[in-house]
Amino acid sequence: MFSLNNTTLAKGGQIAQRLLVTTSFKLHLGIKLSIMDYKRMGSWIIATQKHLQEFSSPYLSLYDATLISGKAGRLMAKIRKMEVIDSEEKLAVMASSIGVQPTELRKIILPLLEEKGIIDVHRDSTGIKKIEENVPREEEILKITTEIWEDIDPQPIEEASLENIEYSTILPRTKSEVTSLLESKGYDAEVIKSTLELQKSFDLIRIEQIPGVNEPIVYTEYTWGENALKIAHLLKRLDSPQKSKIETLIQIVSKNQALPLELIAKSLPSDLLNNTRKTGAIDVVRVSTSGGVEKSFVLTPRMFGTLKDKLVDDICDQIKLFLSCIRFGQHYSKISKVRDPVALVRALIERGSIGPATPIGTDYVMLEVEGIVKLRPAGGGMYYMDLVKDDVAKLTLQVLEHGEILPFDTAELNNLYQTGMFTNPEQDRIKLKRTPTESKIAQELLIRTLRGQEL
Description:
Elements: H1 6-32, H2 35-52, H3 64-79, E1 84-85, H4 88-96, H5 102-115, E2 119-124, E3 127-133, H6 138-151, H7 156-170, E4 173-174, H8 175-184, H9 189-201, E5 205-208, E6 217-220, H10 224-236, H11 240-255, E7 259-260, H12 261-265, H13 270-279, E8 283-288, E9 294-299, E10 303-304, E11 311-312, H14 318-331, H15 341-351, E12 353-357, H16 360-363, H17 365-369, E13 373-379, E14 382-387, H18 390-402, E15 422-423, H19 425-430, H20 440-450
Antiparallel strand pairs: 1-3, 2-3, 4-6, 5-6, 7-9, 8-9, 8-15, 10-11, 12-14, 13-14
């Protein structure tokens, strides 16, 4: 192993530093990491991009490769199994929800995916006519995301950042342990210092002095390990009845994923619920409607599958979205509520299509935006729902089958249609900004673009 120091910088300047650190990291990736390591790295790239999407800062330029490759990974997840996207405009609508603007899509993201053989873009003199996708299964998406990240030639700070996220996710680490790890990878003191400062400022890591520990603890927000640390701090301040309520809450949610937040809010004091959300012990996602109405749903960060010892990871939030939309239809749909979520999802998987029904065209638009289903007009205001991503539906079914269906009574709500935005758990926790309510005109434009209808 070598280290970078002032002598190295004096001889070669910052270019030498850049080349040496990059070479060290890529050799580490190429020789020592297994396929599973590539997948984990892809997970952290996508998770970091989702997190940083909520920030506005000139320092985001230091995460350039992570932001671009993370967007590419999420777009792959969206278009997988769609086979053909018949217009650039439709793809642009799907990409906009992950922060990809049309020029960035056309000039950067699509060429990167073309180079990897993920898509075939058909063009003529007027521009892009259609895109054919060859996206593999989700675990391969993570590997390809990592390859794109490497190809972009990431900066030392973002390389060190992902190393630290991986290291500090396994277990909370002391600051000296993190420093020693990054030094062993070839990063100099300035890169390490800058990495930790940036990660802390963007809330990618937390650095906290824990009573009884001689030095600060470094941990991440993405796993139960970090959550357990924060939960421990919370539980210290609570009496036994309050502790029991939190334990019961987590047990209930693990068996009933995507429960309406307002149901839980009825039985838990607001300050206790807010503190539980802040710890990351539960995830809250929000679905906003075109009328400006928001409904929130509660999940555990990793969801139980059919077997109690099987956890479902959902790095691109598609299962969370599917579950939330189904629960929306179960509890809030004005036209016709879903009586049996399990039967609905099972029928969609077995038949490949359900309908026609009027609520399909209004309550499940975000599933179409995410490329999970296609909504097909049947006339008379009714639609069919055609399944695109059967594996997302199957994992959703596993989560539903493992759980229970709790009764939920709520007042009738007028004109409540799920045709708005989906907010992922990172966005809920960060809350740096609030997504503006979309106008009905803009919403209609989005829906018509997705369905290839006249504008």
